[in-house]
Amino acid sequence: MLNKICFFFFLIPLLSFSQIKPKIVYNDLQRMNLKGNVKEVMETDFKIENNLTAESKKKQFYEFLPGGRLKRKENFLIETVTYFAYDKKGRVTSERTNRTNDKAEKNYTYPNDSVVIRSYKSGEFNSVTKSVLKKNKEIEIYKKLDFTEFKETYTYDSKDRIIKSYGLYYYPDKVDTIKISASYHKKCLNPVSQAFEKPFSKDILNRRCDIIRHQTINKDGIIIREYDYTYIYDKKKNWIERKTYSEGKHINSTKRQITYYQK
């Protein structure tokens, strides 16, 4: 069960950001819920303790191309910089990540419109993923890793948002299965709920598709974690400050500096 829990927290972000089909259908601005011709975003976290505000090490920078695709992103906490390249159709062809002591690279090839091959290399670790896009809104991902092999199937709704994920994980002595389901609010791309058997998470979104409440609920239906969020927006309707509350207490603030391409 511990292995499943670990995979759960590993897979949750994938339902929103890492599958191939959403990357092809939507640009990065759309998937990050950013509006307008955004050029750069600097996002900085501040911890609130004893009514004192201190800047944390959690800081991220994003640079976008005019068409809304990521050009570069930088994570100051883990000291990584990732560069992106695309083909003429706007499909990602490479993601190169520089770390303090090593490098990692993902390369994407498209034999045809329904097949994507992704290779990953980081030091001595290598993997290859084959994604098959089907007419019934499903995408199957096969992963051949140094230590195991995965098969994952994703089912999409009419807006190409993942509503189901079914994974088979083959080990030398066993096969694990993981099922994840998700639901959405109107046009929003981020899910309002994601269930991994039990526990599951539930979000309440505002009309701009930003999370205003996040809950983690255990197998007995008891809320074990809850956060509330408030926002300040700029003229483009992108939030530039988000405050996080736990049990009514202000515990964190995240501020954004957003620059736009001039028309």
Fold-level CATH name: Porin
Helix and strand element order: HHHHEEEEEEEEEEEEEEEEEE
- What's the average pLDDT? 86
Structural class, by secondary structure, is: mainly beta
Molecular shape = globular
Q: Roughly how many Å apart are the termini?
A: 53 Å
Number of domains: 1
Query: So how many helices?
Result: 4
Strand tally, please? 18
Task: Describe the main β-sheet briefly.
Answer: 18 strands, antiparallel, barrel
Helix content: under 10%
Radius of gyration: 19 Å
Low-confidence stretches: 1-17
Strand content bin:
over 45%
Which CATH class is shown?
Mainly Beta
Secondary-structure arrangement, i.e. CATH architecture: Beta Barrel
Describe, in plain words, how this protein is organized in 3D:
The protein is mainly beta and 263 residues long. It has a single domain, classed as Porin (Beta Barrel). Helix content is 9%, strand content 58%. It contains four helices and 18 strands. It has helices spanning 2-11, 14-17, 20-25, 28-31, and strands at residues 38-49, 52-64, 70-75, 80-86, 92-98, 103-112, 115-122, 125-133, 138-144, 149-156, 162-170, 175-183, 193-196, 200-205, 211-217, 223-233, 239-246, 249-260. The protein has an 18-stranded antiparallel beta barrel. The longest helix is centred in the first third of the chain and has 10 residues, at 2-11. The radius of gyration is 19 Å and the shape is globular. It starts with a helix and ends with a strand. The model is unreliable at 1-17 (pLDDT under 50).
